[in-house]
Write a structure and sequence with these properties.
By secondary structure, this protein is an alpha/beta fold. It has helices at about 5, 25, 30-40, 45-50, 120-125, 140-150, 150-170, 185-200, 225, 265-275, 315, 350-365; strands at about 70-80, 95-105, 110, 130-140, 170-180, 205-215, 230-235, 280-285, 290-295, 310, 325-330, 335-340, 345-350, 370-374.
C-alpha cells in the first residue's frame, strides 16, 4: 500500500532532566477545547463562518488522479469551518462527519445542530461517493453522567439523531462523548446498544462510529461489549500534551521515551487491539494541528506560563511558513522555540514529516485507516 494517498488529502532540542509525564490532567478533551475556541459565536449561516474565519471557496480544483484511496480516511467537518468542504478532495475521503449535534444532557435534545439542516456537505459528498455522518458531542463528567443515567434523555437523543440523519439522507452517526465518568461505563454501553439497535433497524447500511480516548483513564469503554455494536473505533491519538498541560511537549508522540513518558500513539493502538478492537475496525485519529505555548524557558521540556493556542495545519503554510522547525527524535514530532515580545514560547505541531511516521505506523499495524481532526 502506498502512503501517498494520505498526504494528498489537504496539501499535495536541548533536553534537561525533567520527565514531562502525560497524565489525565494534561490531556483534557481535545474536540471540546477546539469547539470552545472556534465556536464561541453561534453564527446563523455557513456564509457568516466563512466571513469570520476568511474561508474562501476555491472551486473543484483538487484532484486525486495521482493518489489512490486504499484504506479508510475518516475526517471531521466542524461547523465553524463554514463551507470549507467545497475545497475537500472527496476522492480521498471515505467518510466525513459533520461536527456537531451539541447534546443537551438534561433532555437528550440538542442545544445546537449548527447548519446541519442547511449545509450542502451531504449532497456534495454523496456526489463524490463519500459517506456522511452526524457527530453527537457531549463533553465533561457532569454532562455525561446526567445524560447516561437518564433513560428518557438517551431515548430522546437516539430518536432525534435518527430523525436528523434521515432528514438529510446521511449515512450514520458518530458518538463523541469526552470525559465519561468511570461509574457510567455500564450506562454508556447500554446507550450504544440502544442506538445501534435502533440505527440498524431503520436502515441496515447505517454506520455507527465511536470516538475513543488516547488513554482510557477510567476504563469506560467495554470494547468486547461495544465491538458488535459499532462499525469503527477512532482513537483520538492526540493532545497527549493538551492546551492546559503544565509542560509544553509533543501533541502526539509516536513512542515512549524517558523524556515524554509511556503514553503515546503506539501504546494507544496496542491498548485497543489488546482490549479486543479488531484491526479492520480501528482507525488512528491524527492531529492536523499543534499548540503554541508561552513557556518559562526555551529549554525542552519547559513548564508553560499560559494555555496553548491551537495552530492549524494550514497555519504552517501561511502564518508560520518561515518558522524553522526542529525535529524531536524522542517523540518523532516537530517543534520550534523562540521569543516573541520578550517572552519565550514553544510550538509543537504536526507537519508532513511527523504525520508520515504515523501513516507508516498504520501500515505496520495493519489497522483500518486514519481519522483526521483539523
Amino acid at each position: 500500500m502506498k502512503l501517498k494517498w494520505l498526504f494528498c488529502l489537504y496539501f499535495g532540542g536541548i533536553f534537561i532532566p525533567i520527565l514531562a509525564q502525560v497524565t489525565e490532567k494534561t490531556t483534557g478533551f481535545p474536540h471540546a477545547l477546539h469547539q470552545q475556541l472556534f465556536s464561541h459565536t453561534e453564527f446563523k449561516s455557513e456564509r457568516e463562518y466563512n466571513k469570520a474565519y476568511r474561508i474562501v471557496s476555491l472551486g473543484d480544483r483538487l484532484g486525486s488522479q495521482q493518489c489512490a484511496l486504499t484504506s479508510q480516511v475518516y475526517g471531521w467537518h466542524p461547523a465553524w469551518r463554514g463551507s470549507a468542504y467545497e475545497n475537500y478532495d472527496f476522492g480521498l475521503l471515505s467518510t466525513v462527519a459533520y461536527f456537531a449535534y451539541d447534546v443537551n444532557p438534561t433532555t437528550g435534545s440538542y442545544r445546537s445542530i449548527h447548519q446541519w439542516r442547511e449545509t450542502g456537505l451531504v449532497q456534495l459528498a454523496h456526489q463524490k461517493g463519500t459517506q456522511v455522518e452526524l457527530t453527537a458531542a457531549n463533553f465533561g463528567a457532569e454532562a455525561n453522567r446526567k445524560l447516561l443515567s437518564n433513560p428518557k434523555a438517551t431515548q430522546v437523543l437516539v430518536d432525534s439523531l435518527l430523525a436528523l440523519i434521515a432528514e438529510k439522507d446521511a449515512d450514520g452517526i458518530c458518538i463523541d462523548f469526552e470525559g465519561i465518568p468511570k461509574d457510567q461505563r455500564t450506562n454508556f454501553t447500554r446507550f450504544i446498544h440502544l442506538l445501534s439497535t435502533e440505527l440498524h433497524r431503520r436502515k441496515s447500511y447505517y454506520q455507527l462510529t465511536l470516538v475513543v480516548y488516547a488513554v482510557d483513564w477510567g476504563n469506560v469503554f467495554d470494547i468486547p461489549a461495544l465491538n458488535p455494536l459499532v462499525d469503527r473505533f477512532v482513537v483520538m491519538a492526540y493532545d497527549y500534551h493538551g492546551a492546559a498541560a503544565p509542560n509544553a511537549g509533543p501533541i502526539a508522540p509516536l513512542n515512549s521515551s524517558s523524556e515524554w513518558g509511556k503514553h503515546n500513539v503506539n501504546s494507544s493502538i496496542d491498548y485497543y487491539l489488546q482490549a479486543g478492537a479488531p484491526k479492520e475496525k480501528l482507525l488512528l485519529g491524527v492531529p492536523y494541528y499543534g499548540y503554541k505555548w508561552a513557556t518559562k524557558t526555551q529549554n525542552v521540556p519547559s513548564s508553560t506560563s499560559a494555555k496553548g493556542i491551537p495552530i492549524l495545519f494550514a497555519d504552517l503554510k501561511t502564518t508560520y511558513q518561515k518558522t524553522p522547525l526542529q525535529w524531536d527524535t524522542a517523540s518523532s514530532t516537530s517543534f520550534s522555540t523562540g521569543y516573541l515580545q520578550g517572552r519565550a514560547y514553544q510550538m509543537w505541531v504536526s507537519d508532513a514529516k511527523s504525520l508520515r511516521r504515523k501513516y507508516q505506523l498504520i501500515k505496520k499495524k495493519g489497522i483500518a485507516g486514519v481519522g483526521i481532526w483539523a
